[in-house]
Amino acid sequence: MNGLPDALRIHTFLLPKRGSLPSECEDAIAINKARTVFAIADGATEAYDSRSWARLFIRSWIRIDPTAFEIEDFEPLSLDLGRRLHRKWSRRKLPWYAEEKSQFGSFLAFLGLQFHLVDNSLQWRAIALGDCCLIHRNGTLVCDTFPLTRSEEFGSNPILLPSIHSKLRRALDHIRQMAGTASSGHDFLLLSDAVASWFLKQREEGSDELQVFDKLTDSDDTDGLTDFFEGLRNQDKIKNDDIAVIRIVIV
Predict the structure, then answer these.
(1) What CATH number corresponds to the domain at position 8?
(2) Minimal CA–CA distance to 192: which of 48, 27, 22?
C-alpha cells in the first residue's frame, strides 16, 4: 500500500444543537491528513468556554510529532494547553459570574486515531477519554467499538479532560487505548456521544437507518445529513446535542 494518505477517503460532518448557531457548536473536528492523524472532541456544555477548549486541544494534538498517545506525552500537552487557555481568559474583561465559572475550567471528551504502515500492513491506534467513540467496520461487519460498546453505556457522567491542572491526574487515569489492523474495504467512524449512542442503538436493533447514514456520508451530502439528523431529532431517536462525524474509508 503506497502513499498512505491517498489510501484514505475522508468524510466529515458537524452539526450544532437545534436552536444553536454553527459558531456555538461545542463539538470539534481536526485532521492532519499528511500524518494520517484524526481527532474529535466534545466540549462540556455546562462548563465555561468549552468550545475553545475542544478546538485548542485537538488542533494542537494532531500537530504533535510524535503523536501524544502515551501518558508521559499526553499529560504535559494537556497542562500546557490548559494554562494557555486560562491565560487567554485572564486577559478578558468578564462579568463576575463568568469569571467565577471560568475558575472551574473547561472539560471535553476526546478521541484520537492514527494510521501507519508497518511492513506494508496498515495498522491503527486510538486513544480516548470520555464518551466519543470509534467504530471500526469491515463492510457492514463491526470489528471494534471503542471505548464504549453498547448504547446503554452512555449518559453516566463520563470522566472528561479538564483544562485546570488540579483535576488532570484523575482524568488521565481513565484514558483508554486500542490498536489493530485494517485493510482495503474497512472504514472507521469517529463519533461524538449523541451520534455514537444512536449508531450503537441502531446496530443493536438491526435498523436500516445505518444504510441511509452510510450513503449520505459517503456522498458528502451535508444538506442530506442535516435533514436526516433533524428528522431523527423530531422523532426523539437522537438526543438534541452537537454532532461530530469523521468517516475514513480505506480504499
Answers:
(1) 3.60.40.10
(2) 27
